[in-house]
Amino acid sequence: MKKISDFVLGMDESVTLAAANRAKQLKSEGRDIIDLTLGQPDFKTPENIGNAAIAAIQNGKASFYTQAGGLPELKAAVQSYFADFYGYAIEQNQVLITTGAKFALYAYFQSVLDADDEVIIPAPYWVSYVDQVKMAGGKPVIVKATQENHFKVTVAQLEAVITDKTKVLLLNSPSNPTGMIYSKEELTAIGNWAVEHDLLILADDIYCHLIYGDASFTAISSLSEDIRKRTMVINGASKTYAMTGWRIGFAVGDSEIISAMTKFASQTTSNPTAISQYATIEALTGDKSQIEFMRKTFEERLNTIYPLLADIPGFEVVKPNGAFYLFPKVTKAMEMKGYTDVTAFTTAILEEAGVALVTGAGFGSPENVRLSYSTDMDSLKVAVERIKNWINSSNQSSGTSN
Ligand code: PMP
Ligand code: GLU
User: Is the CB of 18 under 6 A from ligand 2?
Assistant: First the structure.
């Protein structure tokens, strides 16, 4: 009997989660592995947020299903957050609370795509976009942003791939995996282009509070009324408040699409976990002093690790100014070690140098590897040193060449 559907057989496992699981497994076998795979803050969730969750359990509020689209109190907190941070007012029927931002993206694609509708996805892209578009029957159209152009796509590149089936343009700034941020001018040009071609825009802003140096975050949805009307903003609690395990995201945009996504959620998740929703009300409305501490800590790590990584022979790195990833191009290092395949190269670094990275292949960029600096400074320094020693150890690897 054929047990598994063609649909799931045709799906790839998330490479980030697979790499993290492999690192965990080797560690449990007693191997000395420094794990730089997963993009998740390595901080404990701030205490006031945890306390709000405990209170919700103790006072019985968290015992029950909530509205499928999320608690009205949490939606109100998202409305205030938008007024403060995004600088524009939204109605409650424009908000959906979800089981992580990942489910918000999934519900969006399921709600707007018909068979063969095209979604333009700039590469390097976060691993789940492509598979989620395919799961909804849509067609991902990849536009490759080059390292030389700091991983940003231009209007000319978008113009070259648009067809009469193009429905959505996806943007993720700051980006996972590159950490790059589009400027206001770049976003204005791209946003106006989307308006001109009557496209929907999907703006994954999940790293909007992790910005470093002189850089600043611009929300494409804040640029004009015409752009805002067609933009669905995806955001959430995971990255800003060190709440990856709590699984709360939100989508904010057109009320008709939000209503469709809410219907979809009602048939799939019923509601995001009540405990986590109460915790997120506190995250959005309570004391935020820990947030700046976490951001500063990431910035210090970036400033320390970036030059050390750039110093590894064969590693070419653009300094990012957001998120918590570095995405070096390693083609020269692969050549030095006799590799032609970046996934095999990443596996060799894991097996032989004891450092777990994620292959760039899963991000649509087989010339790069991703390193997450969401771990302590000492481990980061040792990890970079290990990779450097491994590259320098000999020019011919003991591993296979493919
Ligand atoms: N978007 C991007 C760009 C991400 O990197 C992630 C995961 N870290 C998500 C969405 C999903 O986040 P979560 O489901 O934890 O809210
Ligand atoms: N988004 C994080 C990452 O890129 C977490 C893993 C995942 O959801 O794929 O590492």
Answer: no
Query: Residue 38 C-alpha to ligand 2 middle, in angstroms?
Result: 6
Sequence-distant (≥ 6) Cβ neighbours of residue 210 within 8 angstroms:
174, 239, 240, 295, 298, 322, 323, 324
| 48 phi and psi angles, rounded to 5 deg | -60, -30
Average pLDDT on 182-195 reads 98
Domain spans, the chain? 6-44+290-391, 47-285
Question: What's the pLDDT tens digit per position in 332-360?
Answer: 999 999 999 999 999 999 999 999 999 99
> Given this chain, do its domains 6-44+290-391 and 47-285 carry the same CATH topology?
no
CATH topology of domain 6-44+290-391: Aspartate Aminotransferase, domain 1 (3.90.1150)
Whether the CB-CB separation of 171 and 182 falls below 8 Å is answered with yes
Which of 17, 171, 175, 206 has most ligand 1 atoms within 8 Å of its beta carbon, as the pocket-test mutant?
A: 206
Question: How far, in Å, from the CA of 299 to the mean position of ligand 2?
Answer: 20
The yes-or-no verdict on residue 401 having pLDDT over 90 is: no
Domain 47-285, CATH number (from 3.40.720.10, 3.40.640.10, 3.40.50.150, 3.90.1200.10): 3.40.640.10
Sort strands 369-372 and 358-359 into parallel, antiparallel or unpaired: antiparallel
- Ligand 1-lining residues (CB < 6 angstroms): 39, 100-102, 126, 172, 176, 204, 206, 236, 238, 244, 249
* Rounded mean pLDDT, 32-57: 96
Ligand 2 atom 2 nearest Cα: 39
